[in-house]
Amino acid sequence: MKENLYLIKIGGNVVDRESIQQTFLHDFAALPGHKMLVHGGGKLADALAHQLGIPQQMVDGRRITDADTLRVVTMVYAGWINKSLVAALNARGMLTLGLSGTDAQLIPAVKRPVGAIDYGFVGNVLEEAVNTDFLVRILEQHIVPVIAPISADASGQLLNINADTIARTLAIALAGQYRVQLVYCFDQPGVLTDVSRPETRIARLDRAQYGQLRAGGSIHSGMIPKLDNAFGAMDRGVDRVLLGRAEELATLIVGAAGTTLC
Amino acid sequence: MKENLYLIKIGGNVVDRESIQQTFLHDFAALPGHKMLVHGGGKLADALAHQLGIPQQMVDGRRITDADTLRVVTMVYAGWINKSLVAALNARGMLTLGLSGTDAQLIPAVKRPVGAIDYGFVGNVLEEAVNTDFLVRILEQHIVPVIAPISADASGQLLNINADTIARTLAIALAGQYRVQLVYCFDQPGVLTDVSRPETRIARLDRAQYGQLRAGGSIHSGMIPKLDNAFGAMDRGVDRVLLGRAEELATLIVGAAGTTLC
Question: Per-residue DSSP letters for B182-201?
């Protein structure tokens, strides 16, 4: 029987907003057994880029990453947010380890090929090259990995990686070893049929229902890649995927908040 | 018989100056056996602070670290410099792991008490609390730690730590397990009796000679704490201490450049 592993993905707002941070860190520290955290940090990166006068351009929710922007996201994600989370979790009695995708060659990547859009220093992960052995050795020491969405290619070029993709990639890579519970935290109380009305939250969503809601236009734009990725992870061995608010983690994981995919 | 461990401390100039970086990374990658790297990054931190309009104040070579400066040094040291080094070394065929002092509670610290000077968010390391077991497990996997001079206290407050002190602390902590070769790289070809003349380099320096040169004023200011620390490390089990230029690492370690303490 495999052991449980909670793999939680949060946005940068957890670090930026004190009230959410305290609730989330408390709930995360209380999760039993193996766990790990993947974080983003787009809003803090936007703020630093603005302060430095580096214009930012987003295409389909992805950041066009020139050399100056790469430096900004590496500093913000792997520096400020990662170390702030590690220190805050350690203070709650955990032993956490901050990592990026290039540390211990955890998540090797390649620069995204230039197609219709040149994303710059943005990486595609090499799923088959994930250093699962290293992560398992860390987890078996009851150390909690905290992962920033930065990696590098084989030439040593740092690359900006989508944090949802990192969470999904690691969840799949670890599914052979653990019963992986993948939790995507975002700024809505779950998947909604009407984004303006929180009471339209779908508690349990299966593929058939997802297909219908998508065809009918109730689920659209940014939720589609998120849900496609999430169902895809379940196809590849991830035990369960949950979506909801970081500050509701404790109720999320028992299925009393957010959306559980099934 | 203990195995050898090279513990190399470099300044931020190694990352900032391409010519030094290539030579140093080549030589570091070629070092046989266990090795680790501790880096600073003061000049890049100065540059970012200047860009952001955050005034910097140094007292006896130590940075007064207010909240804004703490964010700058955490981003620059643990973010940009640390991940750039990790990616560049991985590209040379090594398996490196970037760490700060708060990761895996490697180097617990306390905020420096306010005395005549309030250094702000600057930490004193708790030598007896170093997580040596974690480091040894990493080194025994032939993974190379790359360490940024940032840590945290028990409350989760991030702290700015002197990189020379981190190198010395880890060298002493690991001296029970390894024959530690501690190499301090700086911007001179070694200890000089006249800092304006590189040809006055002292190839081998013992305590008696150090005492004389210090009393005579030939060794002064920033070199005194550096050498006091270095001889102190040898008193506490470190096998050998070398000082010299990062771009001369290959000749340094065979004693053909720099200064060897004895």
Answer: EEEE-SSSS-BSSTT-GGGB
- B 54-113 residues with CB below 8 A of A? 71, 74-80, 82-84, 86-92, 95-100, 102-105
Q: What share of chain A is helix, strand, coil (3-state, %, to 5)?
A: 40, 25, 35
Most B CBs within 10 Å, among A90, A121, A131, A158, to test the B interface = A90
- Residue pair A163/A180 in contact (Cβ under 8 Å)? The answer is no
pTM more than 0.90: yes
Query: Which of A196 and A106 is assigned the larger pLDDT?
Result: A106
Contact state of B79 with A84 under an 8 Å Cβ cutoff? no
- Residue B23 clears pLDDT 90, i.e. is over it: yes
Q: For residue A60, what are the β-bridge partners?
A: none
A10-14, A247-251, B195-199, range with the lowest pLDDT: A10-14
Q: Is A13 an 8 Å CB contact of chain B?
A: no
Average of per-residue pLDDT across B219-231:
89
List the structure tokens of A112: 């995204």
* pLDDT at residue A62, as a whole number: 85
Cβ–Cβ of B86/A75 closer than 8 Å? no
Please report the residues numbered 20 through 49 in chain A whose beta carbons come closer than 8 angstroms to any beta carbon of chain B.
48
Rg (C-alpha) for chain B, rounded Å, is 18
Q: Distance of CA B184 to CAs B17, B127, B262, Å?
A: 18, 19, 15
In terms of CA atoms, which chain A residue is nearest residue B68? Answer: A80
pLDDT of A220: 87
Its ipTM equals 0.96
A·B CB contacts under 8 A: 124
Across the interface, of B83, B92, B156, the residue whose CB is closest to A100 is B83
Q: Tell whether the model's pLDDT for residue B19 goes beyond 90.
A: no
Residue A196 reports pLDDT greater than 80 = yes
Q: Which residue has the higher pLDDT, B42 or A159?
A: A159
Encode burial over A205-233: b for 16+ CB neighbours within 10 A, e otherwise.
Answer: beeeebeebeeeebbeeebeebbebbbeb
pLDDT digits (tens, 9 = 90+) for A36-60: 999 999 999 999 999 999 999 998 7
Q: Is B147 helix (H, G, I), strand (E, B) or coil?
A: strand
Separation CA A82–CA B77 (nearest Å): 12
d(C-alpha B2, C-alpha B178), whole Å: 5
Predicted local distance difference test score (pLDDT) of residue A205 = 97
Distance (Å) of CA A20 to CA A25, A249, B112: 8, 11, 30
Give the span between the Cα atoms of A181 and B156, in whole angstroms: 27
Task: Answer whether A71 sits within 8 Å of B80, measured CB to CB.
Answer: yes
Average pLDDT, chain B: 95
Taking an 8 Å cut-off on Cβ atoms, the answer to whether B77 and A79 are in contact is yes
Rounded Cα distance, A139 and A147, in Å: 13
